[in-house]
What does this fold into?
Amino acid sequence: MSSTVTTRSGDGTIVVSPKNEASQNALCVICHGLGDTAEGFADVAEHLASQMPHIKFILPTAPTQPVTMNMGMPMPSWYDIVGLDERSSEKCNGIEASRAKIASILAKEHESTKLPYSRMVLAGFSQGAALSIYTGMQMEKAEEKLAGVLMMSGYLAGFGHFKVTPGLEDTPIFHGHGKSDPMIPYPMAEKSREHAMEKGASNYELRGYAGLQHSVSNEEIADAAKFLNTILPQDESCKIQLKDPSEMSVKELKEAIRKAGLGNKAVGLMEKSEFVRLVKDHREGKC
It folds into this structure.
């Protein structure tokens, strides 16, 4: 039986979380690539969650907007892309808005569950990877330093105005990249590492995969899992703080029951106190 549950919301966000939400003690936000949606990496998130059920994965979907590089065609995009050469990658209209959106996801999780930023990771593929390093290394203050940044087939966008926030310099960065990538050639990945380190990043690992094009491979996903296990190991002392079931509304209780896959155990329950007891028992591992 799976120890995780996957939920989808109307705005395109997918969440893969521990079936018993009380066991969560880490978070990973995964941003998809240009023209894709959260669905594109849902299977990857579920695979990683099966190995690390203490991590909650949030996969947002980018807004649909015209993309200059693709003849102005509207598509899910974190920011406009004029071209993929070094000069064109400086022009990233909309990246600040997307950076704010991702930062707000982290802030909401921190405020609602008291999960420290040091137990959070930003990850992404291609354009989503560019957004992840752009956001993760420019968190507003040192107290918001993340556990790390995971990049797959990405690059450093807007490096001319990219600045590493003081105190975040040694944030671990793992960048996996196909050596046969025709979209974002491997030399561009090397330049991204070089530029990021010039700006202050001091813990940036770039790993190339022979024969891999603009995609991910089983080997890369395995390396990503190893990276996450290293920077976000199971840590019971960091369990999230959840709202007491007795203080939850019936709507909140029913949602918690749905997410936990306890619908069959809730059949016939009528009183709020019964829903409260079911959620409490689940969190305590009694059901």
Observations:
- The chain has a mean pLDDT of 94.
- The chain is about 30% helix and 20% strand.
- The helical segments are 42-51, 95-113, 127-136, 186-198, 218-231, 250-259, 263-266, 272-283.
